[in-house]
Design a protein that fits this description.
Blueprint lengths: L1 E9 L5 H14 L2 E6 L8 H4 L4 E7 L5 H13 L2 E5 H5 L6 H7 L1 E5 L4 E8 L13 E6 L2 E4 L4 E7 L12 E10 L2 E6 L11 H14 L4
Parallel strand pairs: 1-2, 1-3, 3-4, 4-11
Antiparallel strand pairs: 5-8, 6-7, 6-9, 9-10, 10-11
Length: 216
């Protein structure tokens, strides 16, 4: 049986449980059994972690113990996939650079807060984005510090309307990378559950979870 773990918590403003409840049925439809957990303590159970194909984390602005961080990073390095979106993955643990190194980026700002912006698909042959067109979001446009080793699949361009000094900056929105034998997927969309009413945003994340699980 293919197994998926979804870990949620942290700041409620990101609607972590509501977002998990969108993707859990999609993973079940793909043949996975899905465990949903509201605690980071599971990251200390390395034997259990390594029994999953993919871990999806939706846990914002929180803290993680050294033991929890090591358990998670070791599991991913051993081959377990790790995937997520928005602050639930890239603004989870601000004091943990090793975790941020694994993710490949960290949120630092969303100028203008909830605004209209465009996501541009830049890698149209990748199975995560194949067949999808550029799309519009009405949400937070994440400005991030990112790892240059990421394989970027989609980007957004900042207008400079709210911070003139970043006008024209092209920022990664969707990327994938490796951490040891594990696959890591991230998308900066998904501030709240309603953001996934945008079909392209929902489909990119669905495919990203499956890619991290080594389904393709």
């Amino acid at each position: 049986m293919k197994r998926s773990l979804m870990v949620w918590g942290g700041w409620e403003g990101h609607e972590p449980l509501q977002c998990v409840q969108i993707f859990a049925p999609l993973m079940e439809a793909a043949g996975f059994s899905v465990d949903i957990v509201n605690s980071l303590e599971i990251y200390t159970d390395v034997e259990r972690l390594r029994s999953y194909n993919v871990i999806t984390q939706v846990y914002t602005m929180s803290t993680i113990t050294p033991e929890q961080e090591k358990g998670l990073l070791d599991a991913i390095e051993s081959g377990v996939g790790f995937a997520g979106w928005h602050g639930g993955m890239a603004d989870a643990f601000r004091n943990n650079p090793n975790y941020q190194f694994m993710v490949g980026g960290q949120w630092v700002a969303h100028p203008g807060n909830i605004i209209d912006y465009t996501v541009n698909i830049v890698h149209r042959e990748d199975p995560i984005t194949a067949g999808l067109s550029d799309f519009r979001m009405h949400s937070e446009q994440y400005y991030m510090h990112v790892d240059p080793s990421n394989e970027v699949l989609a980007t957004t361009t900042f207008s400079g309307e709210y911070c003139p000094w970043i006008e024209g900056v092209v920022m990664p929105v969707v990327w994938k990378r490796r951490w040891g034998a594990g696959r890591v997927f991230y998308a900066s969309v998904g501030h709240v559950a309603a953001d996934f009413d945008v079909p392209e945003a929902r489909e990119i994340v669905r495919r990203g979870l499956l890619w991290a699980a080594k389904e393709f």
